[in-house]
Amino acid sequence: MHPSPNRQWRVPRVLPVAKLIGAALLVALGLLLADGDPVRPVVAGVVAALLAGWAARDLVAPVRLAVDPGGITVAHGFAGRRRLPWSQVEAITVARRSHRGLTSETLEIDAGESLHLFGRYDLDAPLDEVAGTLHAARDAAR
Questions:
Q1: What are the backbone dihedrals phi and psi of residue 115, each rounded to the nearest 5 degrees, phi first?
Q2: Which of 18, 71, 91, 107 could link 127 by a cystine bridge, Cβ 3.0 to 4.6 Å?
Q3: Model confidence, pTM
Q4: What is the chain's pLDDT, residue by residue, as a tens digit (142 residues)?
Q5: What string of DSSP letters covers the chain?
Q6: Cα-trace Rg, the chain
Q7: At what angle do helices 14-32 and 39-60 cross, to 10 degrees?
Q8: 76: phi then psi, degrees, rounded to nearest 5
Q9: Measured distance CA(101)–CA(103) in Å, rounded
Q10: How many angstroms separate the CA atoms of 18 and 33, rounded?
């Protein structure tokens, strides 16, 4: 029995909650450490608003990547989606980069005129596993 070729990957459920808590802490710290300076709470508020906006994206569009027999659907823009039929997908790779002792991984989906990049926290799954699932779905569709 083969696993279903329909699959989706989403942001971990705790991530937007952590971002919203971080935003609230920033506002609190900005107010607490203001010491009469109006700039500190304003800067903290701006950074908190950006963090809250990032969390809102995670809540509004948590699914970053989906696959089915016809192709891939990727997150596009703030909360949009873009459909990529298999004929447009040129390559699916996991890129590993090391810099100053730190290694990062990125799932790269090359669709010719567009490149879609996903990190571990975009998909809540090991990137090698996701790439393997995408390759298997593409092979099954051929």
A1: -125, 125
A2: 107
A3: 0.82
A4: 344 468 999 999 999 999 999 999 999 999 998 888 889 899 999 999 999 999 999 999 999 999 999 999 999 998 899 999 999 999 999 999 998 989 899 999 999 999 999 999 999 999 999 999 999 999 998 7
A5: -PPPS-EEEE--THHHHHHHHHHHHHHHHHHHT-TT-SHHHHHHHHHHHHHHHHHHHHHH--EEEEEETTEEEEEETTTEEEEEEGGG--EEEEEEEEETTEEEEEEEEE-SS-EEEE-HHHHTS-HHHHHHHHHHHHHHH-
A6: 19
A7: 170
A8: -140, 120
A9: 7
A10: 22
